[in-house]
Design goal:
The complex is a heterodimer of chains A (119) and B (137).
Chain A: E1 26-27, E2 34-35, H1 51-55, H2 64-67, H3 84-92, H4 108-115
Antiparallel strand pairs in A: 1-2
Chain B: E1 9-13, H1 17-29, E2 33-38, H2 41-51, E3 55-58, H3 67-77, E4 83-87, H4 92-101, E5 105-108, H5 113-129
Parallel strand pairs in B: 1-2, 1-3, 3-4, 4-5
Helix pairs in contact in B: 1-5, 2-3, 3-4
Classes of the chains: A mainly alpha (119), B alpha/beta (137).
Chain lengths: 119, 137
């Protein structure tokens, strides 16, 4: 799979580019189906996707255990890179509760009303 | 509750064997005679032409041809067709597209058999009231 960001070829099972860390899959926020980074609609549920989300995705923060093995920081960090301190802070923060991901969830009652057939 | 009048007929098209079995059971419970089953969208069109059932149920995501395209093809040739979608796909735009096409109802999976029985009975009663449900082959 070719990275949309740096064009490096990656193994098809990779979720992030081995060269630049950009996202290689676009996960559907509704059904979690893994789509290609340039897909416009989810292959699992046809939800409209936002490919720019994948292309602009930053590399995933390394797990806490991995940070211990991070080599000494370079002299400066790019604006899109986290320093070990920032990363540590981020990892200490609790994961926010998911926002109501189903505001548009349709129920059978909604469908009964929509189609005007009252069982 | 059994439907009054002649026994309505149905065709079930779904790529899931489990869903087809469940729909057959629901339709038979509702008083339908299930004439045929299919598992691809293109089969839906063929089976509708072949049997001209009182009601056809269509899944949306199916091989070869999706259920919405199949519904559009059936309804274009037979505006009187009573098409009921049966899918887990709850994307609003898809549901609204079905309604625009003239689909009569949408049963959301996972199906609740008791509710689904009432839905298909209501749909066929409404179609009969409009003189659409009894289509001869």
């Amino acid at each position: 799979m070719k990275c949309p960001s740096c064009q490096t070829r990656n193994r098809p099972d990779r979720r992030f580019c081995g060269q630049c860390g950009a996202a290689l899959v676009l996960e559907c926020s509704r059904c979690n189906f893994s789509n290609g980074p340039s897909d416009r609609f989810c292959g699992g549920c046809a939800e409209a996707l936002d490919p720019s989300a994948a292309q602009s995705a930053s590399p995933r923060p390394a797990p806490a255990a991995a940070t211990a093995r991070v080599p000494p920081p370079p002299q400066s960090y790019g604006s899109d890179m986290l320093s070990p301190q920032e990363l540590g802070e981020l990892l200490r923060k609790p994961t926010p509760a998911p926002t109501s991901s189903l505001p548009n969830r349709v129920t059978q009652e909604d469908l009964d009303r929509l189609f005007g057939v009252k069982p | 509750m059994t439907l009054p009048g002649p026994k309505p007929t149905a065709v079930v098209v779904d790529d899931s064997l489990t869903a087809r079995k469940m729909l057959r059971s629901i339709l038979e419970e509702a008083g339908f005679d299930v004439l045929a089953e299919g598992e691809q969208g293109d089969q839906a069109i063929m089976l509708y032409e072949q049997h001209r059932p009182s009601l056809i149920t269509l899944d949306i995501i199916m091989p070869i041809l999706d259920g919405i395209t199949a519904a559009a093809a059936i309804l274009r040739r037979h505006p009187e067709a009573v098409v009921v979608m049966c899918s887990s796909m709850s994307a609003r735009e898809k549901i609204l597209a079905c309604r625009e096409l003239g689909v009569k109802h949408f049963i959301l999976k996972p199906m609740v058999p008791e509710a689904a029985v009432k839905v298909v009975q209501s749909v066929i009663e409404q179609a009969r009231a409009h003189g659409k449900a009894e289509v001869s082959p």
